[in-house]
Amino acid sequence: MSLVYAIMDLVGKRLSLSDDQKVIHMTKEDALVVYELNCSQKGLEEFKEKISSEADKKKELLLEYPTVYLMNWGKNREYEVYVGETTDIIRRTLEHLSGARNGQNDWHALLGKNQSKMFVIGHDHFNKSLTLDIESKMMLYMSSVERVKKVHNRRTNQQKKYYTWMELEAIFSKIWERLGQYNPELFPLESVVKEAAIFKASPFHKLTDEQERAKQEILEKVRRALKSDETGQIIMISGEAGTGKTVLNSNIFYELNANCGETPGERIESYLVVNHDEQLTVYKQIADKLDLCQENKEIVCKPTAFINHHSVNEPVDVVLVDEAHLLWTQGKQSYRGKNQLKDIMERAKVVIVMFDQKQILRTEQYWENQMIEELERQAKKRDNYIVLKNQLRMQADIETIEWIRDFVDRQEIRPIPHDTKGYEINIFDTPAQLQEEIQNRSENPGTSLSRIVATFDWEYIDKKPPHYQKYWEVAIGGWKMPWNKQIKTDRKAQKRNKKLSWAEQEHTIHEVGSTYTIQGFDLNYVGVILGPSVKYRDGKIVFDPSCSKNKKAVQNRTLSDGTKQNFAQTLLRNEINVLLTRGVNGLYIYAQDEELREALKHAKRH
Questions:
Q1: According to the model, what pLDDT value does residue 21 have?
Q2: Bridge partners, residue 235, by sequence
Q3: Helices H, strands E: what count in the chain?
Q4: Residues 482-515 as b or e (16 or more Cβ within 10 Å = b)
Q5: 138: which residues sit within 8 A by CB, 6+ positions away?
Q6: pTM as predicted
Q7: Which of 89, 103, 223, 531 is deepest in the core (most CB within 10 A)?
Q8: What are phi and psi of 514, to 5 degrees?
């Protein structure tokens, strides 16, 4: 056991605590106490005996102030955890131990069968609101740690402003750093946690005011819609890349499954579908770690799987559709219907869709104008149309965001603005220079989630190797790198990578990603190779379908009236939109077209 006060300033490293390190100096500015005990009756008695012998101030922090606590157990270096907060740590611990002895049919049964540990955390700036926020943030981090397999909490209690709200981040970082000295696997460096894809999509993020208003509005609309017992009611959330659709979607999905309906015991049967392999992996991790699955149901799945396993005669309560713009609007080999969204609506009472028309990438996903207008009309008819406007991904000035919008939407290159928030747009003369800079960024713990992506302008056939070389490659002059998901790894890495998105896998720093691997995800720094399909002529950006290898973007589409039409210009523009909006901290560009490269370099100088 260790009783530790205050926090030492540690720069870039962790120190392990030895058993005889009982006390560290408590500063005058603040006091942090972390106490680890065995989660048992004996451990609690030892805790009370130890605290009784301490100075009044130290006892006060743990016994009279609100505290946050974390119970953990497991084997083979894999953990399950429960996070809580209380105004009476002795009473609350006794309640948990009683639940374990009585074999309660929940996580308490696991607590009683394992060698469980417990951390009790006190701080002299703690109040009820701050401990609730610390609890929520601890759940956010715990659900994102690789070694944590289950987080058993079933509530979120994010607070608004209160007396010490501005201290939340600093105090939490001190707590996390101190916990890491006890168990670095359970509490890895913050930079490692924050770069996990599951962290970015976690339901425990504190929502912005815009997101919180949308969430409460959506939950109220869901409850009202379910009471009417109709089928196919739609709630539509529209927003461009980076406006927080995924976090909002994840939060609502968790709320519906964890907290259910308005009355105790009320069940709301909710499903989440997404037509994107990488995003599907992340959502399945969230459902598994937070123990959301009910009765062995596959509540996170692809649209076709949901359609095939549910009947129009027995509609479920709610289906959330993330990246709804990726749904198919025509049949293909694996899907025999005509419109996935319509098929889902026939099998659900309420459908919540996250939609961004500017992220449609393939002809089979293309939405004709009348289809979008009909979808919006249905939502607006019931006042169920919500727009998210605030840019949350890119930590950049509005002028920087507008520069990207000018490039994509108006196909114009304006002078690259100086960003007061530090967002960096840089232009490179060669792909090798861009590669070197991205690799340098990836070696920094704070920006390790940095990768190279490119327009789909080089040959690539999934799961079929080329005859004439080892990999499908992005090749420019004498420079080349493999296209995504081709580098082979050993069995151990393969097993680990099954639960990681493309960008999180260490070896992918040596690959070039595409829209299909990176859509929906954040990168610290994104290096974008603009291939020959993107040119600059007569003062305008031009998209050249003849240079694209993305057949699903440039081929003709048969419309509902039987005519054929080509949407390559729109879909190639959308491809650029997805690629250029991935970076949280910076955007690096290499353009193969010489005129485009020179125009970008001129824009950087001015």
A1: 39
A2: 352
A3: 21, 23
A4: bbbbbbeeeeeeeeebeebbbbbbeebbebbbbb
A5: 68, 70, 83, 172
A6: 0.81
A7: 89
A8: -130, 180
CB 500 within 8 A of CB 514: no
Residue 461 tokens read as 């056939």
Q: What is the model's pLDDT at position 10?
A: 34
**DSSP per-residue string spanning 188-204:** --HHHHHTSHHHHT-TT
Q: CA-to-CA distance for 194 and 53, rounded, in angstroms?
A: 39
What is the rounded (10 degree) CA torsion for 255, 261, 265, 271? Answer: -60
Q: How far apart are CA 454 and CA 591, in angstroms?
A: 10
SS3 308: helix
Tokens of 465: 């190797």
Pick the CATH number of 209-388 from 3.30.310.170, 3.40.50.11810, 3.40.50.300, 3.30.420.40: 3.40.50.300
List the strands of the sheet with 67-75, edge to edge: 3-5, 32-38, 117-123, 67-75, 78-86, 148-151
- The alpha helices in 146-238, defined as continuous H runs, are 168-182, 190-194, 197-200, 209-228
Confidence band of 9 (pLDDT split at 50, 70, 90): very low
Residue type, 335: Y
b/e map of 257-282 (b: 16 or more CB within 10 Å)?
beebeeeeeeebbbbbbbbbebbbbb
Output the six-digit token pair for 525: 């720094």
- Tell me what the mean pLDDT of segment 442-462 comes to: 92
Strand 316-322 with 270-274, pairing: parallel
| Model pLDDT for residues 215-253, shown as the tens digit of each residue | 999 999 998 888 887 888 999 999 888 889 999 999 999
174-220 pLDDT, tens digit each: 999 999 999 999 999 998 899 888 998 999 998 999 999 999 999 99
Burial class (CB in 10 A: 0-12, 13-18, 19+), 18: exposed
SS3 275: coil
